[in-house]
Amino acid sequence: MGDALLDLVISELLFQRFDQAREGELSRMRATLVREQTLHQVALELDLGPALRLGEGELRSGGATRASMLADALEAVLGALYLDAGIEVVSRVIVALFSTRLAAIDPGVDTKDPKTRLQEWLQARRLALPIYAVTSVRGAAHEQVFEVQCRVEARKVSAQGIGSSRRVAEQEAARAALQDLES
What is the mean pLDDT of residues 3-21? Predict the structure, then answer.
């Protein structure tokens, strides 16, 4: 419920601020504000981690500082606040938590992630989509490091990306491939 409330309030705030923006622009701006990375930062600012009640396994594996865990916890807090106090109160809290980030949003800045930008770059040139392959996974289960290769066969480009998840590694590989293609 918290994620839906956050989407609703952020969407309304963006629409009020950028009433001339196109739907796609508003959606990209909203996605920037409600993505895991941003929610993680807000949760850290609130020092939400120590308030989480976690099992021994989650505590040992760093659950109280994990981005996904903190982002989910923030959404849960917003949902609980709505159930307890209503939409007006949760809206005011969201405005307070996101006001600086909302003020910094620039509709002229491309906020698309590297995989999306790479895909659009290739589609604009009628080239086949990239191929992603995990080339290695290292580390303990709770702190794995993924290495991913991104290949654009039509241009004979191959780029590597490393990250704490497959998704992060794919984004890094796409960023490197796009940089190669644009240079």
Answer: 95
